[in-house]
Give the backbone structure.
Amino acid sequence: MLLPEPIRRLIDALSRLPGIGPKTASRLTFHLLRADGGLSAELSTALANLRTGTATCQLCFNITTAGKELCPVCANADRDRSLICVVEEPLDVLALERTGGYKGLYHVLGGALSPIEGIGPDDLKIADLLTRVRAGGVQEVIVGTNPSMEGDATAMYLQQQLAPLGARLTRLARGLPMGGDLEYADQNTLLRALAGRQSMS
Amino acid sequence: MLLPEPIRRLIDALSRLPGIGPKTASRLTFHLLRADGGLSAELSTALANLRTGTATCQLCFNITTAGKELCPVCANADRDRSLICVVEEPLDVLALERTGGYKGLYHVLGGALSPIEGIGPDDLKIADLLTRVRAGGVQEVIVGTNPSMEGDATAMYLQQQLAPLGARLTRLARGLPMGGDLEYADQNTLLRALAGRQSMS
């Protein structure tokens, strides 16, 4: 009632973003009102261009620039095409690329299996992964789903589906994070680290 | 490099918002990519309309709808015009209005005095406040600046300026917050609560 409609409208829209409640949304809105007009204009344009300017890679389903069939990784002739790392989201590709330690291709599932949220195998790009592996030339599939219930369920399902196809199947190691402290590690991480202990000799 | 330009552009713009770092910005961007297109379109339009759709109240400098001279509070004939509560930001007006316990008018300074950030009296709507009080009819000015260093400095400055004008000058009480716990109250709050203790008899 008290707030002008354009302000209420922006607060409502911002509140629909994950992790942003009504209080943060109004703080952001009033910041934009106070800040120079450039920021809200830039945000408005960037949002309008977000979907028209992007596309999905036809091979790995990573995000790419509109009009391109392949993402920069798939289009790069130097990448090892015999290696596919299966991840849930494009952000996971970014995280792995940032390490600079992976030279293979990716496959972005678009999520993880979750009976609770009603996400089944057909909602993910699993059939496309099987097609890629069946096409041949793939020596190893690294399952890089998250170390969560859903990620584990997805990894098990992928194992069942990929086992008959002959490619080697591996999963990212789980254990204590670097720089972590045994004292503060949660029980499950510690159990994993114990179960996955490696010979030092 | 790896991210398409429209995505990088939105991440950059979102990162310029207060409290939103590069990680949150990319999480929000990828959420918008995954979510139905309606949300990013709605956000884009709301941002574009934010400044064109709003104006500043010519009396109290609160925010109002474009084309209106006064904000809903100043335009309301039922409000007590002998009472002015001075606050830093429009959000403070909202907070006080939500209590339903204040029936006077407001005066929005647009910030607080801060030598560190280079904000002096001329950067705030202090001269306009003095003009309002000098015009007569104001019995009491309630200083509602924040209980912070800057808010305190502003309150002291206002006291100096307003003292000769005859209106009663008060300040919002400081002490223990309701529902708070003595054990967890910070030292300064506790000192204020002690100094401001009230007779129970």
